[in-house]
Amino acid sequence: METQLLVALTFSLVGGLSTSIGGLLVILSDTPNLKILGNLQGFAAGLMLSMSFFDLAHNCMNSLGFLKGNIWFYVGALFFASVINIIPEPTLVPEKYKEERDGSVKGILRKHRRHVLFSGIVTAIGITVHNFPEGMALFVGSMKGLRIAVNLVLAIALHNIPEGIAVALPIYYATESKWQAFKLAALSGFAEPIGVIFVAYIFPRRLNPEILEGLLGSVGGVMAFLTLHEMLPTAFDNAGHKQAIQALFLGMAFMSGSLYFLDISLPKEMRL
Fold it and tell me: What is the pLDDT of residue 83?
């Protein structure tokens, strides 16, 4: 248990710190390239979809049967849908606001900056809440083996870079403070190790193998819902449908290759 916790904490820190990379991209660039961001989001979506359907859900159905595997998968999707319903995750680009009737340029800019600042703070809170179950997923994955944990952290880390940008961009625009933008982006990622610690002390020392397989299937449902509900629409908006889809399939191919490589390179006791 202690080794699994250490592995999960290490990986959750890697995934969580990826939001800091997103924050750095914002403060080091005067004008973040949204097209590159969209391609990165599409690539990360491909990683997560491949991991969700071809690995987590597939193995859950093989272990528990088609019906039970599907039930666990959709339980995870419904759980994450309820999280999003409570605290929706705002989009990357702040919404456009209507001009004030008095036509004052300064008044319009002040109001716009206040709205953007509020959007950035809500984004930071929303992403923090979203990162918490990702930390829980990393702990569950580490209980199953190193292969699952490595692929989970790869997908989550690439997914968290755009999330760091989503936090830092409006904060930097509204406050003109690079430190504030980077700080909030970095802090939003610390929910992942907190999620690891939380779930480590809830689960029993030895989890029933069937329950573990079911939880991994639920993690697949969480990842699939997150990808289809949030990541792909953002990728379409920023990179266009054609390039986002190309990046999606590139990410799926990359994850499939990594699954195969890890399967043949890891010792048998570390495989799924």
Answer: 76
**Triad 92, 157, 244: Cα angle to 5°:** 50
Interior angle at CA 39, CA 126 and CA 18, nearest 5: 45
pLDDT number for residue 35: 80
- String of DSSP letters for 165-219: HHHHHHHHHHH--HHHHHHHHHHHTTHHHHHHHHHHTTS-SS--HHHHHHHHHHH
Residue type, 66: F
Given a cut of 70, the residues of the chain with pLDDT beneath it are 1, 30-34, 37, 87-120, 122-123, 125-127, 129-130, 133, 159, 170, 203-207, 259, 261-272
Query: What is the sign of the dihedral through the CA atoms of 254, 257, 263 and 264?
Result: negative
Cβ(224)–Cβ(30) under 8 Å?
Answer: no
What is the rounded distance in angstroms from the CA atom of residue 231 to the CA atom of residue 22? 15
- The number of helices, as runs of H, and strands, as runs of E, in the chain is 11, 0
In tens, the pLDDT along 117-133 reads: 665 676 676 567 667 76
**203: exposed, middle or buried (C-beta count within 10 Å: 0-12, 13-18, 19+)?**
middle
Please state the separation of Cα 34 from the chain's center in Å.
18
CA–CA distance, 155 with 152 (Å, rounded to integer): 5
39, 244 contact by CB (below 8 A):
yes
